[in-house]
Amino acid sequence: MKRAARISVSLIWLWLLPATLVSAQNAKLPDGFVYLNDLAPDIVVELRYASSNNFIGRPIDGYRSSRCIITRPAAEALKKVEAALKPFGLGLKVFDAYRPQQAVDDFVRWARDIGDTRMKQAYYPNVDKKNLFPDGYIAEKSSHSRGSTVDLTIISLNGDTGKELDMGTGFDFFGPESWPDNLHMTPSQRSHRMLLRELMKQYGFAPYDKEWWHFTLTGEPFPTIWFNFPVQ
Fold first, then answer.
1. What is the Cα–Cα distance from 146 to 62, expressed in whole angstroms?
2. Is 76 a catalytic residue?
3. 3-state class of 139 per DSSP?
4. Could you write out the three-class secondary structure of 163-221?
5. Does domain 30-217 have CATH number 3.30.830.10?
6. Of 46, 82, 211, 220, which is the active-site residue?
7. pLDDT by residue (tens digit) across 110-156?
């Protein structure tokens, strides 16, 4: 009788749990995808689009949690990059990886709302918002939705643990200052960008010539599929 009562109480407790929590715990990723920290627990994740700390200034549609999702081959390659950095007291911080199409659609709607410029000074001070589409900063499709593109930087593991190396601009800064080969950076900033780029290339990622933080796995497993399941 006591055992039956315990089971009954447990079932009631489970029923009372918030639906979002139960959903997140039971969420099954599509085949080929993993949670990055399940494979590489020491990589720091700061999923910007799940927060208000981004160029729009609010959480983005499709980001229901701050768990980083990525394809398994990309996660395994990132783990190798992290291992190469660790002996030098350095690590990785990921800002974004898999991005659902609904999030990209949210970016597009925001870009068309010319009056919403609350984050302009921090993210695009020298770019007129009406030019975000023509200049290629916002697009209707993103390689992130294929699951093997990642936005990241290098951090210190010693002294100021977690401090990002100075790359000359922050993540998602719109402008030529963010181009990896921009010559107006200091030698230190350029060397940090080069370190990140060369290590990522060594372990199978291709850089993007307009964003120092953006890399796509060569031979990605889903080169023609743009996914739309939420981040949860």
1. 15
2. no
3. coil
4. CECCCCCCCCCCCHHHCCCCCCCCHHHHHHHHHHHHHHHHCCEEEECCEEEEEEECCCC
5. no
6. 211
7. 999 999 999 999 999 999 999 999 999 999 999 999 999 999 999 99
